[in-house]
User: Which sequence fits this backbone?
């Protein structure tokens, strides 16, 4: 029996093998070629670092996780709500449209120093940067999902004099879910990037700060350890959203949307 | 006086700079309880007629009257059951939940519906299929669900827009029998769009033959074949004569 758990396990093993092979090659190269630790520490040094610096890593991980989670949630909510407003009001659409294009072109990473000036060095600027970077795909896909409803479905609802609200809750919202979730997966990854950028620019806490610290002190093993944790956090968030996405596709997907990439 | 009356109806669509005349000076009536089909080549505005009758579109000129009121008033009073060429299912709802959709929209307790949704499914031959999702049903089954849905709130007028256009011949024949049986049992008024002349003659009391671009009434064919219509009807010389007459009316243009 190919239970979901067993399938997930098999997938994990299949994907872990190449990674393990890479780590092994890295270990051999770093040790064999005598690459100095401050340039490229062998993986076992990084693993050791987890043990030595576990308290430090843990404390900074919590900070980053909160930033990432809040940034992600803010992006998801803002993206969704603005999309609804745009899909339902020509007025809002016309008002917001030019800004959307410009905001897409502006490298949001470059805004990070500005957010630090505005919001200080605490939690706020990181959440704002993470949300700013992660918000756009949610917005675009939600608009697409809300608007891509078949004209005949809307005619059917109109023919029985359904209210706009009923069309939204019974048709447009469920229809848009298979469009929203792939965007949320991208947003999850972008929120991680945003939080790290925020920490790079101005912070004394968080995994991004730890990476900078490792960098300036030539503690490259600390840098790699922090990087590994960030990657893990990103994977967990991505995996969680992916699971939700699958469940949503199972129930709400049809035709094209059922073929959305389900990494 | 007909229950559906179109009087000198013209419908123009503005597309870019040029206006497309979909319907021009169209007049006909449908009586209460009558089964009327509209046939014509594609692009003759057949579907537009249904949308005008349902109050989903406004005529450019002329008037549409339904039950002595405007189409929009009738739509708000939920007088129309609509069946489309595609079944237009909500894929996240089961067959039964799709049938129930209009009741939810209207706010009728399904338990108090004239015919409960599950019974409607049985009437269209889908007893025991209520918990399946549309993707688990064949095209013909989905169209049966769509028919059950259109009947769920017991509207007096059924508007059917090429409902069997994408089905295979055998499934189509079965659904003809079903629609006639439901129509005879429930005394609905049916306005049925099709491009299939055989289907139109077999089902209808009258067939309105349209010409294309702009759409006009070319001929109205009265079908005085006995009811109930059965398989034997299709070999009836009178049936064949009516089909030939209608086909030649279409080809003349």
Assistant:
């Amino acid at each position: 029996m190919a239970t979901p758990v067993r399938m997930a396990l098999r997938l994990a093993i299949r994907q872990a093998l190449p990674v393990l092979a890479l780590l092994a090659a890295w270990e051999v190269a770093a040790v064999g070629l005598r690459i100095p630790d401050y340039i490229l520490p062998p993986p076992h040094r990084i693993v050791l670092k987890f043990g030595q610096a576990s308290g430090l890593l843990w404390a900074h991980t919590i900070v980053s996780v909160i930033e990432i989670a809040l940034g992600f949630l803010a992006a998801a909510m803002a993206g969704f709500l603005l999309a609804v407003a745009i899909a339902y009001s020509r007025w809002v659409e016309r008002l917001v449209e030019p800004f959307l294009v410009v905001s897409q072109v502006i490298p949001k990473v470059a805004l990070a120093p500005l957010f630090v000036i505005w919001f200080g060095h605490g939690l706020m600027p990181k959440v704002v940067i993470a949300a700013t970077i992660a918000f756009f795909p949610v917005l675009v896909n939600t608009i697409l999902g809300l608007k891509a409803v078949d004209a005949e479905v809307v005619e059917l609802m109109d023919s029985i004099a359904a209210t706009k609200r009923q069309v939204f809750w019974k048709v447009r919202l469920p229809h848009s879910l298979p469009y929203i979730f792939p965007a949320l997966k991208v947003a999850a990854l972008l929120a991680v990037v945003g939080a790290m950028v925020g920490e790079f620019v101005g912070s004394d806490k968080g995994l991004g700060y730890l990476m900078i610290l490792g960098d300036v002190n030539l503690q490259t093993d600390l840098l790699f350890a922090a990087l590994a944790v960030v990657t893990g956090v990103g994977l967990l968030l991505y995996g969680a959203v992916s699971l939700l996405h699958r469940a949503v596709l199972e129930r709400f997907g049809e035709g094209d949307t059922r073929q959305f990439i389900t990494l | 006086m007909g229950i559906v009356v179109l009087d000198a109806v013209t419908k123009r669509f503005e597309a870019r700079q040029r206006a497309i005349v979909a319907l021009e000076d169209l007049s006909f009536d449908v009586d209460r309880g009558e089964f009327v089909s509209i046939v014509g080549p594609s692009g003759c505005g057949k579907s537009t007629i249904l949308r005008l009758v349902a109050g989903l579109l406004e005529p450019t000129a002329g008037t549409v009257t339904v039950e002595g009121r405007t189409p929009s008033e009738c739509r708000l009073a939920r007088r129309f059951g609509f069946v489309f060429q595609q079944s237009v299912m909500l894929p996240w709802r089961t067959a039964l939940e799709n049938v129930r959709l209009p009741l939810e929209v209207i706010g009728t307790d399904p338990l108090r519906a004239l015919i409960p949704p599950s019974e409607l499914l049985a009437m269209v031959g889908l007893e025991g299929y209520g918990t399946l999702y549309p993707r688990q049903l064949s095209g013909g089954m989905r169209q049966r669900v769509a028919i059950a849905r259109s009947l769920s709130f017991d509207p007096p007028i059924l508007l059917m827009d090429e409902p069997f256009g994408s089905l295979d011949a055998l499934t189509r024949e079965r659904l003809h029998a079903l629609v006639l049986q439901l129509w005879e049992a429930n005394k609905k008024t049916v306005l049925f769009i099709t491009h299939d002349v055989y289907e139109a003659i077999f089902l209808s009391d009258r067939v309105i033959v349209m010409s294309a671009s702009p759409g006009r009434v070319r001929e109205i064919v009265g079908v005085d074949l006995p009811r109930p219509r059965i398989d034997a009807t299709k070999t009836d010389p009178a049936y064949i004569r009516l089909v030939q007459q209608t086909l030649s009316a279409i080809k003349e243009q």
Notes: Residues 38 and 219 of chain A are 6 Å apart (CA to CA). Chain A touches chain B at residues 150, 152-153, 155-162, 166, 170-171, 174, 251-254 (CB under 8 Å).
